[in-house]
Design a protein that fits this description.
This protein is mainly α and 448 residues long. Helix content is 66%, strand content 5%. The protein is flat and about 115 Å long.
């Protein structure tokens, strides 16, 4: 048996001791060392750049990876040579770790951003004109980038949403309401009837809502916006190719819920049933509260904006860091709350309980500083200083990680878009070549 073995890998000659290869008999080279006895070189059509590192693995007992080879190619080569990743030296594990993280992020981008939306069957659409019209309508409402009219409609949808949010804000201001009854009339009704029993007459916000109504012009605008959203939802659902999957989208569920809640409050305002008693008033306020979700309608257009997509992906992939931030806040806010409570124990006007101290510590750590509660003693101010500095450090660390994740996703998304553009160009080129040779193919078939 020859002491040395010769390999011709990718056109390059390598020599190594047979005994080195027998160190790991379960690997491909180890099996070759047991089965090959001749002097002729073993010809292998593989990457010779990585092969030198593989031979070093048998010599040194640990695998060091080349820096100038793609990690994906390295992993495939290791699979071919039957070398497990656990043999990689600790100094080179970063290459594999970064590659695996990159693959996960690319898969997440593909899952979230690539066109996997429900659509009509292409065969049915080509054979049925009614299906063609339904599909065009579906794309018009669901995918703003499908056509220029769809893009213009998405802009109009966004403007109506902004108007709806503005109306929601304006209806709470006395300037955009007109008085229908006075405070004394409300007091009279409270004395002789059960109406307005639940109204706190010392609360100016409640008095505004029971003595005034939204101006007719604003009310009509609000009903018009509501009619627009209702029509959009009905047509969007009616043209959906798979009705069962329509409400699997959280945004579609939110849209339907907002339409229902807005119609409920509009009808209650029109018939004034909301002031008929405590239960009706609670129902009205509850559905009115749901109107604060109106701005989320804009998320329907999120998939058309790469920046927003990256932001939400970064937030979703930083759940662990955000969770750590919340836990750290809970721990430190309770710690500083108890500390400042006893530091201010002799001061009768500050921090009546630890719960007040928790509110103060959260406001201090987030550097908001409302000023409604603050320490007055020297020891309390020292605690406040440490609390503020701790808050800066606690917030800075997870935010830096989230920002790094956002930047990484953004870079990988640019690569994804570039790859898609190359694929599109390749398809167009293949199609043009096919069209170019089609006349020749027809002539050729005609001759023979």
């Amino acid at each position: 048996m020859m002491e040395f073995m010769t390999f011709d890998v990718g056109g390059m000659i390598f020599k190594t001791k047979r005994q080195n290869l027998l160190t790991y008999p379960s690997t491909r080279l180890g099996k070759m060392a047991q089965e090959t006895y001749g002097e002729d070189p073993v010809i292998i059509d593989r990457n010779h750049t990585i092969f030198s590192n593989i031979l070093d693995f048998y010599r040194l007992g640990e695998l060091h990876l080349p820096q100038n080879v793609c990690a994906a190619a390295t992993i495939k080569e290791l699979e071919y040579w039957d070398i497990h990743l656990s043999h990689i030296a600790e100094c080179c594990l970063k290459i594999i770790t970064e590659y695996e993280e990159s693959v996960k992020k690319h898969m997440e981008l593909k899952r979230r951003l690539d066109d996997v939306e429900i659509d009509y069957n292409s065969k049915e659409v080509s054979e049925n004109k009614a299906k063609q019209l339904l599909r065009q309508t579906w794309l018009f409402f669901d995918r703003p980038n499908s056509s220029k009219p769809a893009f213009i409609y998405s802009i109009f949808f966004m403007l109506v949403t902004v108007l709806s949010v503005a109306l929601f804000c304006m209806e709470t201001h006395p300037l955009f309401r007109e008085q229908v009854q006075t405070k004394d009339e409300i007091l009279g009704l409270m004395n002789f009837t059960d109406l307005f029993d639940d109204v706190n007459m010392d609360n100016p916000k409640e008095i505004v809502f029971v003595t005034t109504v939204v101006k007719p012009s604003l009310y009509h605008l609000q009903v018009t916006c509501l009619a627009f959203f209702t029509t959009d939802l009905i047509l969007h659902f009616a043209t959906c190719p798979v009705k069962k999957q329509f409400f699997r989208s959280p945004l579609n569920v939110l849209d339907a819920f907002l339409v229902f809640s807005m119609w409920t409050t509009t009808v209650m305002e029109f018939v004034e049933i909301w002031s008929a008693g405590k239960i009706a008033g609670t129902v009205y306020i509850t559905f009115k509260l749901c109107s604060v979700f109106r701005p989320f309608r804009l998320l329907r257009l999120i998939r058309q904006h790469n920046g927003l997509n990256m932001l939400f992906l970064a937030m979703g992939n930083s759940k662990w860091e955000i969770g750590l931030l919340m836990m750290a806040f809970m721990f430190f806010s309770t710690f500083f709350a108890g500390f400042v409570y006893y530091a201010e124990y002799k001061e009768p006007t500050t921090f009546p309980s630890v719960f007040t101290g928790i509110w103060w510590s959260v406001i201090t750590m987030t550097t908001v500083g409302y000023g409604d509660e603050y320490p007055k003693t020297l020891l309390g101010r020292i605690v406040g200083t440490v609390c503020a500095l701790s808050g800066v450090l606690i917030i800075a660390m997870p935010i830096a990680i989230i920002a790094s994740t956002f930047s990484d996703f953004n870079d990988k998304n640019k690569v994804r878009l570039k790859r898609q553009s190359f694929q599109t160009q390749n398809k167009k080129q293949d199609k043009s070549v096919e069209n170019h040779f089609k006349p020749y193919q027809i002539k050729h078939s005609a001759v023979y």
